[in-house]
Amino acid sequence: MISKKIILSTHQVNVAFVESIAVRSVKKTVSQENTMLFFLHEALGSIPQWRSFPQLLCDALGMHGCVIERRGHGESDELAYERTARYLHQAAYEELHELIQLLLPAGKKAVLIGHSDGGTIALLYAAKFPKQIAGVVTMAAHVVNEEVTRRGIHPAIEAYKAGKLDGLKKYHGTQTETLFYAWANTWLSEAFKAWNIVSDIQGIQAPTLVIQGDEDQYGTEEQLKLIQQAVPTAQLEMMVGVKHHPHLEQTDDVVEMIRGFLVER
């Protein structure tokens, strides 16, 4: 992957470009010339935390892609504002929108591959800007703030205080603590308790694949049902024995699932 920083109107984000090196025998409905993958990471994610998944998926589809680090993550600029209950809308409608306008070649469409917060951002973006989107794939996306989500954050806070999550510093450096508490405090806040974006994603027109692990500590099958309520054509996949990171826990299965959905549907 070739990494470089992209300067948006007010800050820098880090982008890694992924080029397909194999598998050209894909159907014309998913042509590498017309489509580009955009990988959108989780709440505490960064480019290297995707591991080999973006390259494997680009290879399987025969497409180019780019992996994005949002502001406050990894090597991007620091998070310089207090998050509100609309921070995911802001990430979709402002930051991602500006980045896609900058990076997506004229005449091409984007396929959004989002994990957790990134999945939510993908849904919001695809509904707001449907003409730019050829497909949406989410893994462990949220559209409501479930009680199980809030319960799952408390152990994470205790683990962070005990130094058990110090591995995050490898990816986020001096931004780690700010990023961690921006996530934890926002989702536990009273203002975010009733957060619900079901009505905001009803404009999605592109084929949509929604993947969830049945042992996800941050979300239940209710997330799948609500997404399908808003996007009736969405394909739902509940993966047995999988927690919050389907693409890392069962990488080959997820790559094949996405390939089949985008190429063979």
Describe this protein's structure:
The chain has one domain (2-263): Rossmann fold (3-Layer(aba) Sandwich), CATH 3.40.50. Helix content is 37%, strand content 19%. With 265 residues, the chain is an alpha/beta fold. Helix 1 runs parallel beside helix 9, helix 2 packs across helix 3 and helix 4 (147-161) packs antiparallel against helix 6. The protein is built from nine helices and eight strands.
Count of discrete structural domains:
1
Per CATH, the architecture is 3-Layer(aba) Sandwich
Number of alpha- plus pi-helical segments? 9
Order of helices and strands: EEEHEHEHEHHHEHEHH
According to CATH, what is the topology? Rossmann fold
Strand order in the sheet with the most strands: 1-2-4-3-5-6-7-8
What's the CATH class label? Answer: Alpha Beta
* Rg computed from alpha carbons, rounded to a whole number of angstroms: 17 Å
The biggest sheet amounts to:
8 strands, mixed
Report the average pLDDT across residues: 91
Give the N-to-C terminal Cα separation.
29 Å
* Secondary-structure class: alpha/beta
Q: State which percent range the strand residues make up.
A: 15-25%
> In the CATH hierarchy, what is the superfamily?
Alpha/Beta hydrolase fold, catalytic domain
Kindly state the percentage of residues in helix.
25-40%
DSSP, total strands: 8
Broad shape: globular
Low-confidence stretches: 20-31
